[in-house]
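Quick check before the chapter quiz. The format below is the same one you will see on the exam, so make sure you can read both the input and the output lines.
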Amino acid sequence: MAHAALDEPMETAIWIRQNDREAWLVEVIPSLPEDEHPERPVAFNPGLGFRHPLNLLAGNRASVETAVRVDRDLAQTVAQGVVLYGAALGEELKALAAQLANGYAQAG
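Here is the expected output.
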């Protein structure tokens, strides 16, 4: 993945909503500041390097974990996601999301 080679690389990328016409990714980028709403995607139009519309949900680990804790729909989609990069952290986030989506953990 191209983002892993940037000066501020991601630690994991999870492909969510695989059946959507647009690409959806959740990325953990440690250098990003705290974000109260990482669940709000940044939309990218198709280009030469990537020919599909892309919706990117990105934040540092704490921000992404908080978003999954407070948004059950996001938790469900992350739990069903496919880890594309950063297997260990990606699987940790998917496990947390699955636990939250199933109501086994409390938010907070």
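If your answer matched, good. Residues 73 and 83 are 18 Å apart (CA to CA).
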